[in-house]
Amino acid sequence: MYLVCPNCGVESEHEILSFKDTKGGKEYVLRCKNCGYTYSRTVKDSKMIDLKVIFSEQGKSYIKKYSTFEDDILSVGEEIRVEGINSLVTAIDSSGRRVQKAAATDIDTLWVKRFDTVIVKISINRGERTLSGEVVAAPDEEFYIGDIVEVNGIHGVVHKIKTMERFVHRGGALAREIVRVYAKEIREGRRKY
Asked: Which residues is 148 bridged to in the sheet?
């Protein structure tokens, strides 16, 4: 669930650690995933509901469920945990239409993809040929210009990174933003004795 944290002031995902029934509602113990602050919050008469989720993982889809407060608002691009797995909301169906965000009670189906790991595509230039491959990375893992990458035993040095918005020629980018990493083969010289 996304709330404004009283400690850091950022609207971020919160993990429900525990809850108990009180008069007119429930008292939740929550942890902010942005700063780690743990606090309790009483929510009056807000019920938890289960949403139907189409969960995608490496080309396969499964039907799962996601529990949230009925008055929670979910958005495309938001990160949530579906049955304990970090997931990214990719689409929302509400009243027979695709929408960018909706209240939980208005959501027919939530479309998500697994997001605890991402696939980063890599191309290593070997002169007249280019070798393509993939590596598995954490979404927040950073790739930098000058890094050494490996595809099928061939090593290359990163010289360009294409993100969803631009090409990176200096610095780096997060794996979640990368479309492709471009590298040039490192040719190991022969030692002379």
From this structure: 157
CB of 114 closer than 8 Å to CB of 146: no
Contact (Cβ atoms closer than 8 angstroms) between residue 175 and residue 142: yes
The per-residue pLDDT for range 9-55, each reduced to its tens digit, is: 877 788 888 888 877 677 889 998 889 999 988 776 667 888 999 99
pTM of the complete model beyond 0.70: no
Look-up of token digits 């996601």: 66
55 and 39 inside one domain: no
Residue with tokens 């989720």: 53
Domain holding 10, by residue range, is 1-46
Q: Between β-strands 85-94 and 109-114, what pairing exists: parallel, antiparallel or unpaired?
A: antiparallel
The helix (H) or strand (E) run that includes residue 165 is none
The count of domains in the chain is 3
What DSSP element (H or E) covers 63? Answer: strand 60-69
| pLDDT tens track for 166-180 | 999 999 999 989 999
